Amino acid sequence: MGEVDPAFIQAVEHRPKLAIIEAEGIPLIDLSVLSSNESSNPSSTEPLVAEIGEACKNWGFFQVINHGVPLEKREKLELASREFFAQSTEEKSKVKRDEVNVLGYYDTERTKNVRDWKEVFDLTVKDPTVIPASHEPDDKELRKLVNRWPEYPSELREAFEDYAKAMEKLSYKLLELISLSLGLPEDRLGGFFDDHTSFIRLNHYPPCPIPHLALGVGRHKDSGALTILAQDDVGGLEVKRKIDGEWICVKPTPNAYIINVGTIIQVWSNERYESVEHRVMVNSTKERFSMPFFFNPDHNVMVEPLEELTTAQNPAKYKAYNWGKFMADRKRSNFKKLDVENIQICHFRIKLDESS
Ligand code: OGA
Ligand code: NI
């Protein structure tokens, strides 16, 4: 990444503390009951549903083990990702994203207008994926996003497709459990995902000479429904703990996945479950790899608090918004530095007292 560009420097209040706080971490949840013979019996999953509900409410984050995703599928994609990023910038740039097709390689992402110390490769799960051509509300034109496949490593495509299938399966399972935990039927949310716009990001965080000043990813909330993250054994992900706002490190657990609820679930649940801020620290000696799967609904879904979860005492806290337009706006602002603030969910929040 060359000389340190001042665009990477975080404001003083957002710089990481390099001394890690040892603290109670995010909940670790065992999903083995789902693969047991008992799983068709609703009472056998009740404790699990309760555990997931508590984790979503108190942390917005949890880790899962015994999730049923074969380790081999993950390892194949991890290896292909390492091989891809180990190539020269020139080689990687052959599959670089552009303004029309936002999928592919890039190393210039900004979070809240500060550059992230990382390079990424974005791949869509349903290839092609249809999304609105622009963020303009009246523009009805659609656009197809297609994956770009690098020449090397040639195994990347198959490894990606296998892994993506496993992630889809786990996402639907988690969505059912989350629906149940909100007191809804297990199939209440699945219909929003028939033509889902999910994508996988391969992240590479190179060693950084200024880990006290920069971040791999600046503080942010994930804007989709759910994220399933595979991180390697280096560590660096930090989650903002709800009770006190401290940044808590998520210690790597072999073969576990880190799950977090995104902003769409925050809105659907009318804030029973909040999407929690997180960020990634980098370090001066070790490179780090991670692979988030962002589970996102169809582009035409209007996201709004679910009727069943709002009452006269607890009215909807958000106006409905179109997921595809929201996403198109985000992708646009990721592509180049805009002078305007990018779209935020607070723009759709209803002020309960409009006069104030
Ligand atoms: C993200 C993210 C965490 C990580 O890409 O949204 O939070 O550990 N990544 O890479
Ligand atoms: Ni994130």
Automatic annotation (TrEMBL):
Pfam families reported in the protein's UniProt record: 2OG-FeII_Oxy (PF03171), DIOX_N (PF14226)
Range of residues in the leader sequence: none
Keyword NADP annotated: no
Gene3D superfamilies referenced in this protein's UniProt entry, alphabetically: B-lactam Antibiotic, Isopenicillin N Synthase, Chain
Alphabetized GO MF terms: metal ion binding; oxidoreductase activity, acting on paired donors, with incorporation or reduction of molecular oxygen
PROSITE patterns per record: FE2OG_OXY (PS51471)
Record-linked InterPro entries: DIOX_N, IPNS-like_FE2OG_OXY, IPNS-like_sf, Iron_ascorbate_oxido_reductase, Oxoglu/Fe-dep_dioxygenase_dom
Keyword Nucleus belongs to the record: no
Sorted UniProt keywords: Iron, Metal-binding, Oxidoreductase
Residues in Fe2OG dioxygenase domain copies: 195-297
Family: Belongs to the iron/ascorbate-dependent oxidoreductase family.
Name of protein: 2-oxoglutarate (2OG) and Fe(II)-dependent oxygenase superfamily protein
Protein source organism: Actinidia rufa
